[in-house]
Amino acid sequence: MDQKASEKDPLVLFMPSGRRGRFEKGTNILEAARQLGVYVESVCGGRGICGRCQIEIQEGSFAKHGITSANEHVSAFGAKEKRYAEKRELKDGRRLSCSATIEGDLVVDVPQDVQVNAQIVRKAADTRLIERNPAIQMCYVEVDEPDMHKPLGDLDRLKLALERDWGFSDIIVDQHLLPRVQKILREGEWAVTAAIHQDMETARPALIALYPGLKNEAYGIACDIGSTTIAMHLSSLLSGLTIASAGVSNPQIRFGEDLMSRVSYVMMHPDGQEAMTNAVHNALNGLIEEVCAESGVDPTDILDAVFVGNPIMHHLFLGIDPTELGGAPFALAVSGAVHSWASDLNLALNHGTRVYMLPCIAGHVGADAAAATLCEGPHRQDEIMLLVDVGTNAEIVLGNRERVVAASSPTGPAFEGAEISCGQRAASGAIERVRIDPQTLEPRMRVIGVDAWSDEPGFAAQAEKTGVTGVCGSGIIEVIAEMFLAGIISEDGVIDGSLADRSGRIIKDGRTFSYVLWDGDTRLTITQNDVRAIQLAKAALYAGIKLLMDKQDIAHVDRIGLAGAFGSFIDPKYAMVLGLVPDCDLDKVKSVGNAAGTGARMALLNRGYRREIEETVTAIEKIETALEPKFQEHFVNAMALPNKVDAFPELARAVKLPAKAEPAAADAAAGGRRRREGRRRRT
Amino acid sequence: MDQKASEKDPLVLFMPSGRRGRFEKGTNILEAARQLGVYVESVCGGRGICGRCQIEIQEGSFAKHGITSANEHVSAFGAKEKRYAEKRELKDGRRLSCSATIEGDLVVDVPQDVQVNAQIVRKAADTRLIERNPAIQMCYVEVDEPDMHKPLGDLDRLKLALERDWGFSDIIVDQHLLPRVQKILREGEWAVTAAIHQDMETARPALIALYPGLKNEAYGIACDIGSTTIAMHLSSLLSGLTIASAGVSNPQIRFGEDLMSRVSYVMMHPDGQEAMTNAVHNALNGLIEEVCAESGVDPTDILDAVFVGNPIMHHLFLGIDPTELGGAPFALAVSGAVHSWASDLNLALNHGTRVYMLPCIAGHVGADAAAATLCEGPHRQDEIMLLVDVGTNAEIVLGNRERVVAASSPTGPAFEGAEISCGQRAASGAIERVRIDPQTLEPRMRVIGVDAWSDEPGFAAQAEKTGVTGVCGSGIIEVIAEMFLAGIISEDGVIDGSLADRSGRIIKDGRTFSYVLWDGDTRLTITQNDVRAIQLAKAALYAGIKLLMDKQDIAHVDRIGLAGAFGSFIDPKYAMVLGLVPDCDLDKVKSVGNAAGTGARMALLNRGYRREIEETVTAIEKIETALEPKFQEHFVNAMALPNKVDAFPELARAVKLPAKAEPAAADAAAGGRRRREGRRRRT
After folding, report:
1. Position A678 pLDDT exceeds 60
2. pTM, 2 dp
């Protein structure tokens, strides 16, 4: 707020931030926004040529704020603004805040969609508005021409101009620019746009790219390197819009399907790490080409890049041998945020492009979990939130603004269908949804690639094309949960052989029984071993969650987010019926599938989020489940469906759960112990 | 000084710094030195294993300081010190300051030659002791082992150890170390030595190299890239000693003998700059190999590098096209100090090695002149010093602690023998010293490669091997000065044809006369044109100096330093007889031939000197001689020998100068004007 302002001066309210202040008549609106800390973009520094500082005046009486705002409370179009509106498009009602001045009370809307390049369209998927404060700032300056009386170098005069017009002092200059600075200055006739990278406000600003004349765009990529899929978003750093997205299977799959097999590959092949690092770099360069082709963006205009991934993906991306993550004490080479150069990581971007990687939380809780935490923000809430990313190792984060704790739990690959007799990856022909009639014990199901449910007309014809080839992760959760709800399996996970009398779907299979889910060209059965595998996996997950709840001293969570690919597809209700997660109001259990990618985008568009997640990760208390004495007890209790000791009252309101019985505790405990030891050795 | 210290506490004086303070008995001597700001090296951080912190106790009564110092005033050998003395050599009288404590009054000598590697010997040439405060610090630390309860990464725990033991916070880590940090930590069994680069105390420290266990050495190179010769010194950053030096002809000579022909080459060949940049990088890598081979040092142990050179060498080294330096306004791409990476400049050193280049003063006054200024320190003196580096463009610096001014003057290549009929480069067979008998007008001379003077026994036999092939720069200065002193040429530079009657050495040569300097297999004559060429060159130089003296409002300089290769070989007396430089006490005129190289070494060994020269260069007032109205007048006056208007009373005390006559002013002025215009166009 203007220090000279008095109560008689106009009152200005900026939306959506809600910041307000009084300013003398004649104050420039951009200047007023800056004084209030409202982020309004500007590349040209108020020369009225970039058009980035557009705002909209809200007309009308805003009684709540005591403001009557009108277009007449702003100065008329000046020369700069007229020139801009003639040369470029300035939508009706839009003004350039660098030119318009305050002449009365105002409600000023700072639109979040200011785009000056017509070809760039917003992606439909991009629904979340992220407040911007990027690490890259595009700064147009007019540089003094060389003067024999003051023989300062061209670069030195450019630095002076950046200090004079933009307040940057003590600028670091990337070596690659030195040979180019003279040509660019002359090409731009002493007017250039400097790309300044400043991740931390306390760090020295770095000049990383330089363009002749006005360069009115700059881009960044945010990337989630998953063990299965790599996803990339291309965003404008000046408008915040996501303008292209692409994904690809992680090519490291050819070295090993899951994380641990990739670590084994590295341990057994001298060049294994290098080969996998190259593979991921190549895949990333392919995605860069793809998003650039889709949007017509030049890759050298991508000036910032943010990456997240689980610890093993994180290490392989950075060229670090992940062997240490394969065994206790699971030492990360680096856990803090990593600042690097795209060129050092072989990424085909601008020479000066910087790379930021979010911190890892622990040896099995990676930068992807940190990004999901940043996105979902348990640390910003009063409610206690549980965030779970289910994979071979589940990453678990639990807490609220008071305290956040995290752990990983060795669930193994069962949820991904790997230890299930009829399991398969989520692809065409896989059963993904299942319902079982508790009276007839007959199932109906949905198959990936087929629109109709199996009891609907047209299913058979469509399914002929895809085949019905197996059951994917979400299908396994549903079929076992439905078997439990239908009374086919007991609370302790035993398939009830006595039902064979009632239904041909229950068949004897050696000393145990199986359930025939599909009997077509292939026969898909859920065996007793399949049920056990899911029990073991979900018990490990739940035990990890319980340890964190113990640490927090809580018996109930307010909110649950299921992250990752698996989390996107499972039905929260069935996850809870099986007891993967603790009891919770079902309306507050949600898939947050792309939380890691969104967290990466947040860190790309706003450096403040980088500091936020760094501080949060430092403060997060890490629990090593393997070292907790109560893990075993929680594990044994969690073998039961949904749980031997924990009640699920919220779930019971939505689903009719079978009555409780005595669990086969000894059996479950023995199995649990064997399982855990086996898993830990392989991890 | 210990804050708790009282007047009763022991008084400790450190030499050679002369800093003193009182400390409580039992205070560690290293700690006392640090408190007083006395630089004492230590790699192991006081563990008594590196031996770098050696000091010597001076015994006796130091009345001036009121101290009686004795070995008994220091604690007896402790366990650490005994162990070190047993394992390694600890010279008689030496103590480890990290172990010995103060027990009484002491005079402590901090030796400047502490070396712990026997194979490293001091170069004889290295006579100047440079106070050390290098940008590289070697820091031994013991890092906590990984702990599953606190899953901080290995690198993160290393950073914590560096903060705990060495006070470095917020460390930047070079990307190339990330893949190696885990192996190095394990190889060193959690003890490692980190190389920390911190050029400015306010900058974030950077971890640039990491070694398992104790790494008790680190090296740096200082390099002067001359247009003719490239010289490199390899120094220990831990002892300050120069341990190897090497030089090589600048391979760019094949693209052009002098600077301007190299700029022309770039302008005419699209790949010219790249070819010359590669040539100098290759030459530097050859020198690196050479100094490393000579000293047995691994190139990857060279962690810091300082370069100086004239503006065109500076630009070509950095990969910058020097075309802009070829014409007005002679715009430097960058004038300030440059911080870069050796790997970006294709130097085969450690991945993390940093490069520092001193600032340039102006478009024709380069980083070499800045380094010479740093070395000779006019800005540190009360006396007014003139520093001249004679080349195709002379670089001139003049001033004292009050004010320093600088300029370049277009002397052309005459001093290098290029426009002289019998001129040649300083090589075997070149006449380098000349004396002329004023009675007989007979010369005697010395020839490079021949020990005897030409009138001494054995000359003929030796000269048969080398031949007498031409006259090099210093020889030309001497022969023309001697011709002037012998009355062969007049004050205005005309060879006196009337002397042909007295001596056969004076011969008619068209409308003018020549002097026969040598008449053997080849005949070497000094023609009237040769004399004119030297007059024009020296007049340009002197006029530049006079402009700076005008700016300083002085008529006399206290001290003159002649820098560069030319400056190393010319006799100051003859330079003054010809009037290249103004009158000065001859005892205070000295060759400072290697001042630029020494300045580079100073910046290598002490980052404080980097700040000193940066501040000095910023403060230096630059005069563009081409724009000064008085240049022409000074030039015309300086055509006379030694000068038409300026007196040389100091010189006259040492040398009998011919009586003054009327100069041929009109002729000289016309020549000067033509010359200047011609030169500037080519520059």
Report:
1. no
2. 0.89
